[in-house]
Amino acid sequence: MKWYQLDVDQVAEKLNVTMDNGLPVKQVADRRKKFGANVLEEEKSTPRWLLFLKQFQDFMVIVLLAATLIAGLLGEFVDAIAIMVIVLVNGFIGYFQEQKAEKSLAKLKELSAPIATVLRDREWIKVPSQEIVVGDVIRLSSGDRIPADVRIIKSIGMEAEESALTGESLPVMKHTNGISRDHVDPQDQSNMAFMGTLITRGSATGIVVGTGMNTVMGQIASLMVKTKKITTPLENKLAELGKILIFVALALTALVVVVGVYQGHPVYNMFLAGVSLAVAAIPEGLPAIVTVALSLGVQRMIRKKAIVRKLSAVETLGCASVICSDKTGTMTENQMTVKEIYLNGKHLYVTGDGYDIRGDYFLNKTKVNETFPNLQSMLLYGMLCNHAELHVKKGKYYVDGDPTDGALLVAARKIGLKPEHNEYRIVKEIPFDSDRKRMSVIIEDNNKRRFVVTKGAPDVLLPRSSFFMGEDGRKLLKKEDKSHIDHAINQMAEKALRTIAIAMKPLSKQDALDTTFIENDLTFIGLYGMIDPPRKEVRAAIAECRNAGIKTVMITGDHVKTARAIAENLQLLPENGLVLDGNQLNQMSTDELREVIDQVYVFARVTPEHKLKIVNAFQEKGHIVAMTGDGVNDAPAIKASDIGISMGQSGTDVTKEASSLVLMDDNFATIKAAINEGRNIYENIRKFIRYLLASNVGEILVMLFAMLLALPLPLVPVQILWVNLVTDGLPAMALGLDKPEEDVMRRAPRSPREGVFARGLGFKIVSRGIVIGLVTLLAFMLTYQNDPDNLVYGQTIAFTTLVMAQLIHVFDCRSEHSVFTRNPFENMYLVLAVISSLLLLLVVIYFEPLQVVFHTTFLSLRDWLLIIVFSSLPTVLFGFTKK
Ligand code: ADP
Ligand code: MG
């Protein structure tokens, strides 16, 4: 017998689980031992030693090692061993950097791992999907990616899209009945839900019958292609640039070698120097450091509650020029409280805060109770047409489910109504979705009488109502009644209240149960007005974004007036700003929308489909758009946007998968924090690119100038390699951890098309590089000409000047403006990195055994004076210009 052939009870019995209790927590571990964790096996990862070896696969490094080997064979042991050690240490550093980047990416994956809701020991709990075991009773809802193979035991209009498995993209309706046939293909097993497929509509409960590799997906998993490592645009740009830089570096070093040989230097000496110079000058490690910087930035973002799902988003974030954000839950708390009720043509006011069930109803300052006409039935209907549950934990009430629904439960509790469903049975439910903006249930009472209750956006329900409930019973809904109700809706909305209408209709047994019939000719009962207070940090975040040249746009399914009131409260809507609603959007062509979109700040009464149109219009205007979303239908807009943002708490799996950023706290302010971080990371990357390349330019030029002037080599190969290792290593890393400049959030967004050298970076690199090369050369010449017999002395001076010039210049790289605008002690990593480089420098100069290795000699105080003056010139000079 297959799972789909069994009845629900048989499935439960066979798996030894009761549907009301779920699995006992005690059994879970045993079952996991028996069936394994709920994961698909992945391919084995590359062994560590191979990763380490990969550090040396670079062509010039191989040439260097070969040249060193020859040097060793020719008897230059000390040089050979020193070079070997430096190359090895360099390899270790590269290896550890890569490991670190990898680890933080793995952690990221863990953080964004899917969560499932299962019933264990009578309690619904959330567990990571990989901890699900066979026999778990699981809850599935619209937007979920199904985490295991599940036999459906209860379905509320659930439809699944199974193309991942079957290739068929039309959703399949799911039910609970056993299928008696044999050999049914997965696509026809309509009482089963399969791992990896999507729920597009409705919700369901089921029992897990297969996990991990024992699922239909697991059986075909081996056929799936392994995903390639995706590189970010910046990494691509750098890889491109790297090729050019390699060429330039090789050409220049070749020039150094040729000129050197021409001036009479021994070929062999020049060759080793040239290769060392090439190794030092080729920024082969740049893409790796960029990845490290990106992933470190990602970790900082995690601390600020933003999870980056795609590394490329870190870069794009810094370019965002428009944030389209959902209002409900992202800009507001998503904690709804009914404050007002409109019933029998009267406004009742409700006291109480949040989900606390204490509170009363007032009509003109006099308390009313359940005897107020129609109040009890209205609140009862609100409770029946409801998908949330109200629970209490440690005296505090909280809502499990949609907060809008939860607010109605709390409102009912305030006159003592509790959901006791033994009197009413739900025959059918059409769940709420943002497209329809309403929800309906068909109820059967104890006397087998049926009726439908519909609740939803008032402007959706009113046209579907033909009657209304007054103090003395049901009446025909005439034009003037409608305008009274409209007036009440507007009144509530202007107070920033979210409005929900409730309506009903008695049904007879023969009535058809299709949507078109049951949701028409309704009897309008009343309105709820609920507040959803703005999150307190949002107003400041919007203002900060505005300063940063980023426009914030509110998108909501709520009433125009409600949206406007909240937008004004948040100071999001400028005086000449426009508010558009879904109807207006429908009537506008894409061109028309594009023309006005820069003036629009609020989109109200929109459906998820509109979001796509909005994203497109902004993009056509050249904007880089961040778009938030939570429901299934938001996924296309999220995908189309430049930075798709999903909600960690209220979001569905589908939107999370489509997004590149997940907000752990669903909070708008977190978007701003992430953008801030994104800009900072990019700036830091610019900082160390600038530092590394300027250093390399300096190194090459000092050699080139010396050769042109027919001088001896100012630096020997080990010194060049030492500079590459020490000066370029730690300080560059520390720049990647730098704090942002004060004005990063006051600059306009960066263009995503800007090149690596944009905004004057190229000039900064070349100009500083030239001056670093020149001062090193001058220091060398001065010393050498005074004392031509002591070449080591001149070389030590050149080496020290070069190192010092770089260690000072690194502080210049922290600012786009001037080195004097920044406090050097702000970045203690950098200070420590510079101090340790300095100590290492002193060691190779003053520690006698190392003097032999590094071709150095003692320096006097007078020498240091010269060195310090020369080495600070590049930074001090340029500190006075703004270029
Ligand atoms: P939002 O962007 O504010 O989340 P929605 O599309 O969720 O907008 O809601 C739009 C409108 O639908 C609301 O203003 C309200 O009138 C109605 N509505 C919201 N939630 C529910 C619900 N659970 N049941 C019935 N109607 C709802
Ligand atoms: Mg909503």
TrEMBL record:
Catalytic reactions on record: Ca(2+)(in) + ATP + H2O = Ca(2+)(out) + ADP + phosphate + H(+)
GO-annotated molecular function: ATP binding; ATP hydrolysis activity; P-type calcium transporter activity; P-type sodium:potassium-exchanging transporter activity
Q: What is its main location?
A: membrane
GO terms classed as biological process: intracellular potassium ion homeostasis; intracellular sodium ion homeostasis; potassium ion import across plasma membrane; proton transmembrane transport; sodium ion export across plasma membrane
The topology of this chain with respect to the membrane is:
Multi-pass membrane protein
Tell me the Pfam families matching this sequence: Cation_ATPase, Cation_ATPase_C, Cation_ATPase_N, E1-E2_ATPase
What the entry lists under InterPro entries is as follows: ATPase_P-typ_cation-transptr_C (IPR006068), ATPase_P-typ_cation-transptr_N (IPR004014), ATPase_P-typ_cyto_dom_N (IPR023299), ATPase_P-typ_P_site (IPR018303), ATPase_P-typ_TM_dom_sf (IPR023298), ATPase_P-typ_transduc_dom_A_sf (IPR008250), ATPase_P-type_domA (IPR059000), Cation_transp_ATPase_P-type (IPR050510)
Q: Which domain of life is it from?
A: Bacteria
A GO cellular component entry from the record: plasma membrane
| Compartment(s) where it occurs, according to its Swiss-Prot or TrEMBL record | Cell membrane
The record's keywords, sorted A to Z, are:
ATP-binding, Cell membrane, Ion transport, Magnesium, Membrane, Nucleotide-binding, Phosphoprotein, Translocase, Transmembrane, Transmembrane helix, Transport
UniProt KW Transmembrane keyword: yes
What stretches pass through the bilayer? Answer: 56-74, 244-264, 270-296, 688-713, 719-737, 765-784, 790-808, 829-847, 859-880
Q: Which residues form the Cation-transporting P-type ATPase N-terminal domain?
A: 2-76
Of which family is this protein a member?
Belongs to the cation transport ATPase (P-type) (TC 3.A.3) family. Type IIA subfamily.
Q: What is this protein called?
A: Calcium-transporting ATPase
Native source species: Lentibacillus populi
Q: Which gene encodes it?
A: yloB
